[in-house]
Amino acid sequence: MRAAVHTAPNEPMRIEELADPHPRTGEVAIDVRSCGACHTDLHVLKGELPFPVPAVLGHEVAGVVAEVGPGVTELRPGDPVVTSFIMPCGGCPPCARGEEEICQRFFAYNRGKGRLYDDETRLFRPDGEPVWMYSMGGLAERCVTPATSVYRVPDGVALADVASVGCSTMTAYGALRHAADVRVGDTVAVVAAGGVGSALVQLAALFGAAQVIAVDISDEKLAGARELGATRTVNSATTDAPEAVRELTGGRGVDVAFEALGAVPTFEIARDSVVEGGQVVVVGIAARGTTGSFDLATIARRKLQIKGSYGAKPRRDMPVLLDLVARGLLRPQDAISRRYAFTEVQQAYDALRRGETIGRAVIDL
Residue 199: how many CB atoms within 10 A of its CB? Predict the structure, then answer.
């Protein structure tokens, strides 16, 4: 099969021929039809998140089941599916207490070493050299992942529309539903209107937020956020964003501010935009070592809540999201602004690096 192989930080990915991967017990092989280009992949490509090489990245996958391993009974070859980027093991302490979004084995084996849960990769070069996997390694014609991260796409839903559900949409849903518990009538600011930010805007509107204020430095991205449900927008390159957010909320600030990029300036905007007793939810993945500051006295006096959110709970939440898509209430395809052929995979990430991507870009195979 063909795969886009990451070989060194800040070097272009190379399309190589790798051996076809096959599933082991409890796993599923998927013929990839599309894969979203996520900013977290870009952190790895830039060397900002340590990860072994050579590796295949890509973790927003939509495709068709090619093969199932022993013990997999709920899926069969030919099923249209989407994957969650979090691959819960189902047995570690966090998974056992219902916090599979912080599965210990996922971080120890996959994010730490690029392997699945038998401590081995499924990807190899023709000479037998191992190639490591970031999640399932979806920037390839075929990938293998635990069945706990694979979900059948409902009838009538196009595979080309739903790859991003497994990461940007799921990440946004986890932040809104579990970290912040946004309710009807809440006021929300989304700081950084990229892929995850676009999903936050769309879902916050669906959750019934009274105001959804998108903040970004790009007028194009802000225009896209308005189309997805933002009630007001603020360009932080040309105005004092926290002050503007307060003006838009009658001087009080928002109930919840989501930081969706993973950078100090966006964190500071979110921090300074919330009402007394409000929540600042950090969703964006920052480069290792990035630090944001806050005044402890201010946190105590204003009763601020600063939270982190890594994603939704796949086995509980992915069926909910796919049902919303099937009923037409959630339209992830509306956030897709660019599609690339597989041979253009590096161009997709170059555009993401330059900040040119509005919403989500998808690589079609």
Answer: 31
